[in-house]
Specification:
The complex is a heterodimer.
Chain A lengths: L1 E7 L5 H12 L6 H22 L7 E9 L2 E8 L14 H6 L6 H9 L2 E7 L2 E9 L3
Antiparallel strand pairs in A: 1-2, 2-3, 3-5, 4-5
Helix pairs in contact in A: 1-2, 2-4
Chain B lengths: L1 E7 L2 E10 L4 H13 L4 E12 L1 H8 L2 H6 L3 E5 L3 H9 L8 E2 L2 H14 L1
Parallel strand pairs in B: 2-3, 3-4, 4-5
Antiparallel strand pairs in B: 1-2
Helix pairs in contact in B: 1-2
The chains are: A alpha+beta, B alpha/beta.
Amino acid sequence: MVHSIKINCSKSSLKEIREFAEKILSNYKIPEVERNLIVVAIDEVCANIIIHAHHCNGTDEISIRISEFDNILEFAIIDQGEIFNITDYNVPTLENLIKDKKPGGIGLILVKKIMDKIMVEKQDGKSVCRMYKSLVL
Amino acid sequence: MEITTFNEGKYYIIKINGELDASSSLILDDAIEEAVNKDQKLLLFDCENLHYISSPGIGVFTSRIEDHEQKKIYLVLYGMNEKVFNVFKILGLDKILPIVNEKEEAKILLNGALNKN
């Protein structure tokens, strides 16, 4: 089964995205702390797309699809914006971010630490970020 | 998200209520800026009602570490729930930022830091 939601590209939509993800994830036996981390990773990618690819333009839309196959959860985040390849991005170290006094960059560190696999592609003119998380610990 | 600030003796309490994400982190940043402008040196962050945090919220703390060290501003975060603490922990920030369970522990830690310098 695929669960999906389409929301406007504004920062205030992030809460709605989290509630959607939390609701779907609560159907699986994932400890609360782990479940929250998955929600954080989805939030981070969506926030990144909303802010950087859509400049918080509330008339643009972003879709989130959650599915599970063979004990692997797939999170697909789809939008019409410029593609940002998170997999190519050289994640800064936390020490450097602190030294440079930069508030940004932590989100991508989190996403890479939390998710098992991340793929980014263009599909039918749309940008698709797919993240995978195994349900088997 | 709502921030409440008040003095408790020599301590400046910043109480965070709600969810800290990309839409709300600036409110916390403003509250810290205000504390710095008021020349408050001992900051206590009450996280008992902080229900969620993502990177913009965390960035508010990390981006100020160097400045706070320079200005001799000391801070401690306390009362975090396990979910929120785990976001700090996965980043290794539990080793960099002082995070404790109770307010009294936080005060002791701040006094220790103050006496050391």
